[in-house]
Write a structure and sequence with these properties.
heterodimer; A: alpha/beta; Rossmann fold; 2 domains; six-stranded mixed beta sheet; 39% helix; B: mainly alpha; ABC transporter involved in vitamin B12 uptake, BtuC
C-alpha cells in the first residue's frame, strides 16, 4: 500500500502558538483515517492545516511524496478536496451547479464545462444518490441531501485525498450510515484516501482503518480501532467522569446511581439490561448477579451496578458465588427477579437464592422501584419524589403488571411475591422441558 | 416588473417538476439556455425602448417619426431638434446607460465579496468616500486652476472610494459579523458625508452651486468627451469582471470551498475591491452618489434569470442597470419639468421597495 498523505513533525495552531505539535501521520491508498477527540482539542485545526486553510507552524506535509508547500493552488486542488463544516448558503444555485463547482481546477479560463466534465458531475451525483435533485435549488434541500451534494462536489474534484470535517454533524442516523457507506465505497473501489473527523465514536470504530485520538494535550493514541478502543482510552480521551463508554456495544451508559444498593437484581442472558437502565434513570443504587462474564447483562451491569457478582465465562455458579450473592442480597435488603429471566441448566442454582431470601424474610419485590420508595422515606426532596411518581406509570409499564404493590420489609408481605417468583421460575423450567422434549 | 418575472419563475418550476423524471440533462440545460436567451432579448428590447423614449420625451417636443429620422439618417441634420438630440439628449442617455450598468455590476461585485444581498457601494460608504475626496479636490482645483478634467475627477473619486473601502476592510479583518460590518460601512458613509458638508460650508458660492447639484446626483450636462471617458473606464472595469467570471462562480460556495478548489482568495479579493471601487468611483465622479441601483439591480437580475451564474448575471446586471438608470433619469427630468429631480430621489422610490421586498422574502426563506 503506497502512502498518499504523510506529515513529518507537523505543528498546527492558530497564529504562531502551536496547539498540537509533532504530528506524524501516514495515510495509504484507500485508507480511512478518523480523528476523534473532545470539542476544541484541535481536530479541525489539523484538518484545516492539511487542506491549507490554515498556515502550518512547522514541519511538512507531503502528498504522494510531493511537498505540499511547493504545490500551486491548482495542483493542490487536483489532489485534495474537502467537505467543510460550514453550512453554506448557495444563492440560487442548483445542485448540479454546486457539484460542478468541483470541476474548477480542470476547466478553462471562463470555467466552461466540457462534455467530459458534465459526465463526471453526473457520475458523482448519481454515486451519492442525489441525481434526481440536480435541478433543485441547493438551499431547498434537507441537511442530509445538502451534505451529499457537497460530497458529490468533492468527488467531482477527483481527489487523491478527501478530507471531511465532521461530515455527520447535522445528519440523522439514516443519513449518517448512508454517508459513511459512500465513503467506504469510495475508499475501497477508487482508492481514495479519506481523512475525517467524527463525533460519533461508535461510527468511528466501524468505518476507520486507523483512528487518531486528538486530546487537549496532543495526539494521545494512533492505531486500528481494536487497538484504540480498549481499556479506558475513550473515557480518558473525553475526560468522562460520570458515565461509561461501553466498548463492546459502542454505546454510552449514563452516570451510575451512587450509594448502598437498595435492591439486588437477579438477572442474566439480557434480562437485566432494561431493569438496570430503569433503575439508573431513577438513580436507585443496586447490585446484581450472578452473571457470567460473557453475559450481555454483564457489560451494562459493570457500568451501572454498585456490585456485580460474576463468575468466569462458561462456568456454573459456584457455592462461593452463591454465598456471596446471598450476602449481597442481604446487604441490599430486597430482591428483584428480572421478569424475562429464564432458568436453565447453567443457572438453575440461582433459583435457590429466591427461596433462601424468602426464608430469611428478605422482601422480594414485584416492582423494582419499590426499593426506591423505601429509600425515599429518608429523602426530604419532595419535588423529586413527585417527579418519580409522575413518571412511574410510564417507566414501570414494561415490568410485570405495574402493580403498585410494595413488598415491604415484613415477612408476611414478602412471601407472596416470593412464591410467585418461584412459581414463575418453575413455569419457565416446565416450558423449557416441554421444548426440549 | 419584479412580480411578472416571479410568477414566470414559479410556472417554470412547476413545469420542470412535472417533466423531471423523463428529463435528460441536455434538455434541462437547453431549457435554462432558453430562459437566458428570453431574458437577454427582453433586456435588449427594454434598452431600445428606453433609448427611443429618452430621445422622444423632453422639454422640446419631437414627433416620434422624427426620433427615428434623427437617429438613423442624416435627413434632419442642421435642424434645432437634431442638435438637441445629438448634443444634449444622446450624451446624457449614454452616460445614464453606462453609469447605470457600472452601478449594477459594481453592486454585484460587492455583494459577491461580502456574500450579503444588502451590501452595495452606496451602503458601505464607498460612494460617500469618493464624494468626499472629490469635493475636496474640486474645491482646491476650482480655486487654483479654475476647474478640473474628467479624468482627474475619476482619479480623485477612485482614490476616495479606495480610502473608505480600506477603512471598511480594516474593520472587516476584526469583525467577522457581516451585519456589524454593514453598520460600520454606514457609519463611515456618515463621516464622509459630514466631511463633505464641512467642505461645502467653507466653500465659495460658485463652488457651492457646483458641489450641491453634483452631490445630489444627476446625469445632466454630460457631453461626448465625458461619455468617452466613462465608456473607457466602464469598459476596463467590465472587462476585468468578465475575466473574473470563473473565480466569482467558485466564490459563491464561500471562501473555504473556493480556496480548496484552487482559487487564490487574497488576490481575488483585491481584484474585486479594485474593480468595484473603480466602477463606483466613475459613477460618483460623473453623476454623484446614486443610491439603491447597486442593491436592487443585481437582485432583480438574479430573480429574473433565476440563477446566480456570474456569466449571465454580470452582463444581465449591466443591461438591467442601464435600463433602470435611463428609466429613472427620464422620470427625473420629465416628471416635474422644467424642474429636474435628483436622480437618487427617483432611484430610491423605485429601488427601496425592491430592497424591502427582498428583506421580507429572505426572512420567509429562513424560517
Amino acid at each position: 500500500m503506497s502512502v498518499k498523505l504523510s506529515t513529518e513533525g507537523l505543528s498546527v495552531g492558530y497564529g504562531r502558538k502551536p496547539l498540537i505539535e509533532d504530528i506524524a501521520m501516514r495515510i495509504g491508498d484507500g485508507e480511512i483515517v478518523t480523528l476523534i477527540g473532545p470539542n476544541g482539542a484541535g481536530k479541525s485545526t489539523i484538518l484545516k492545516t492539511l487542506t491549507r486553510h490554515l498556515q502550518k507552524i512547522r514541519g511538512s506535509v507531503a502528498i504522494i511524496g510531493e511537498d505540499v508547500s511547493k504545490m500551486s493552488d491548482k495542483k493542490f486542488a487536483e489532489k485534495v478536496s474537502v467537505v467543510l463544516t460550514d453550512r453554506i448558503k448557495a444563492d440560487r444555485m442548483t445542485c448540479e451547479e454546486v457539484a460542478a463547482a468541483g470541476r474548477y481546477p480542470y476547466t478553462d479560463f471562463f470555467g466552461r464545462l466540457t462534455e467530459k466534465d458534465r459526465g463526471i458531475v453526473e457520475d458523482s451525483l448519481k454515486r451519492v444518490g442525489v441525481w434526481e435533485f440536480k435541478d433543485r435549488q441547493f438551499d431547498s434541500l434537507s441537511d442530509g441531501q445538502r451534505q451529499r451534494v457537497m460530497l458529490a462536489r468533492a468527488i467531482c474534484q477527483q481527489p487523491q485525498v478527501l478530507v471531511l470535517d465532521e461530515p455527520t454533524s447535522f445528519l440523522d442516523i439514516k443519513h449518517k450510515i448512508e454517508l459513511l457507506d459512500i465513503l467506504r465505497e469510495l475508499a475501497k473501489e477508487h482508492g481514495v484516501s479519506i481523512l475525517l473527523s467524527l463525533h460519533e465514536i461508535d461510527l468511528a470504530a466501524k468505518i476507520s482503518d486507523t483512528v487518531i485520538c486528538v486530546a487537549d494535550d496532543g495526539i494521545r493514541k494512533v492505531g486500528a480501532p481494536q487497538e484504540v478502543f480498549c481499556g479506558d482510552t475513550i473515557k480518558e480521551l473525553y475526560n468522562i467522569e460520570n458515565g461509561e463508554y461501553n466498548l463492546v456495544f459502542g454505546s454510552v451508559e449514563l452516570k451510575a446511581p451512587q450509594g448502598k444498593p437498595s435492591v439486588f437484581v437477579l438477572a442474566g442472558g439480557g434480562a437485566g439490561i432494561s431493569v438496570y437502565r430503569a433503575l439508573q434513570r431513577r438513580q436507585i443504587p443496586f447490585s446484581t448477579g450472578i452473571l457470567c462474564e460473557n453475559d450481555i447483562d454483564y457489560q451494562v451491569a459493570k457500568a451501572l451496578a454498585e456490585t456485580v457478582i460474576s463468575i468466569p465465562a462458561f462456568e456454573m455458579p459456584s457455592e462461593e458465588s452463591l454465598a456471596s450473592a446471598m450476602e449481597e442480597i442481604r446487604r441490599a435488603g430486597a430482591l428483584y427477579v428480572a421478569p424475562q429471566l429464564r432458568f436453565g441448566t447453567c443457572n438453575a442454582a440461582m433459583r435457590k437464592l429466591i427461596g433462601d431470601s424468602a426464608l430469611r424474610g428478605i422482601a422480594i419485590l414485584e416492582d423494582p422501584f419499590a426499593a426506591k420508595a423505601q429509600a425515599e422515606s429518608f429523602e426530604s426532596d419532595a419535588k423529586t419524589a413527585a417527579h418519580f411518581e409522575k413518571s412511574d406509570a410510564k417507566t414501570a409499564a414494561p415490568f410485570e403488571k405495574n402493580g403498585g404493590k410494595v413488598g415491604t420489609g415484613e415477612p408476611a408481605g414478602g412471601v407472596m411475591p416470593a412464591l410467585k417468583s418461584l412459581q414463575r421460575a418453575e413455569d419457565a423450567e416446565d416450558e423449557s422441558k416441554i421444548r426440549t422434549i | 416588473m419584479e412580480k411578472s418575472y416571479e410568477t414566470k419563475t414559479e410556472e417554470k418550476q412547476a413545469a420542470e417538476q412535472e417533466t423531471m423524471q423523463q428529463d435528460s440533462p441536455k434538455r434541462s440545460r437547453k431549457k435554462e439556455l432558453f430562459r437566458f436567451e428570453i431574458c437577454f432579448l427582453l433586456l435588449a428590447a427594454a434598452l431600445f425602448l428606453m433609448v427611443i423614449l429618452s430621445i422622444w420625451i423632453g422639454s422640446v417636443a419631437i414627433p416620434v417619426g422624427d426620433v427615428f429620422k434623427i437617429l438613423f439618417s442624416d435627413q434632419m441634420k442642421g435642424e434645432a431638434v437634431y442638435t438637441i438630440v445629438w448634443k444634449s439628449r444622446m450624451p446624457r442617455l449614454c452616460a445614464a446607460a453606462l453609469l447605470g450598468g457600472a452601478l449594477g455590476v459594481s453592486g454585484f461585485l460587492i455583494q459577491t465579496y461580502f456574500r450579503n444581498p444588502i451590501a452595495s457601494p452606496f451602503v458601505l460608504g464607498i460612494s460617500s468616500g469618493a464624494k468626499m475626496v472629490l469635493a475636496f479636490v474640486t474645491v482646491i482645483a476650482l480655486r487654483f486652476w479654475g476647474g478640473m478634467g474628467s479624468v482627474s475627477m475619476v482619479a480623485a473619486s477612485f482614490l476616495g472610494a479606495l480610502v473608505s473601502m480600506g477603512f471598511v476592510l480594516a474593520c472587516a479583518g476584526k469583525v467577522k459579523n457581516m451585519s456589524l460590518l454593514l453598520v460600520i460601512g454606514i457609519m463611515i458613509g456618515y463621516i464622509c458625508s459630514a466631511v463633505t458638508d464641512f467642505i461645502i460650508t467653507f466653500a465659495e458660492d460658485a463652488e457651492i452651486a457646483h458641489l450641491t447639484t453634483w452631490s445630489m446626483g444627476s446625469f445632466s450636462g454630460k457631453d461626448w468627451n465625458d461619455v468617452l471617458v466613462i465608456a473607457i473606464v466602464v469598459a476596463i472595469g467590465f472587462a476585468g469582471c468578465i475575466a473574473l467570471i470563473k473565480p466569482i462562480s467558485a466564490f459563491r460556495l464561500g471562501e473555504g470551498y473556493a480556496q480548496s478548489m484552487g482559487l487564490n482568495v487574497k488576490l481575488f479579493r483585491v481584484l474585486i475591491i479594485l474593480l468595484s471601487s473603480l466602477l463606483s468611483a466613475c459613477v460618483v465622479a460623473f453623476a454623484g452618489p446614486i443610491s439603491f441601483v447597486g442593491i436592487a439591480v443585481p437582485h432583480l437580475c438574479k430573480v429574473m434569470f433565476s440563477s446566480s451564474k456570474p456569466s449571465v448575471i454580470l452582463p444581465g446586471s449591466f443591461l438591467l442597470g442601464a435600463v433602470f438608470c435611463m428609466f429613472c433619469d427620464l422620470i427625473a427630468r420629465t416628471a416635474f419639468a422644467p424642474t429636474e429631480m435628483a436622480i437618487s430621489t427617483v432611484t430610491a422610490v423605485f429601488g427601496a421597495p425592491v430592497v424591502i421586498g427582498m428583506l421580507l422574502r429572505g426572512r420567509k426563506n429562513r424560517t
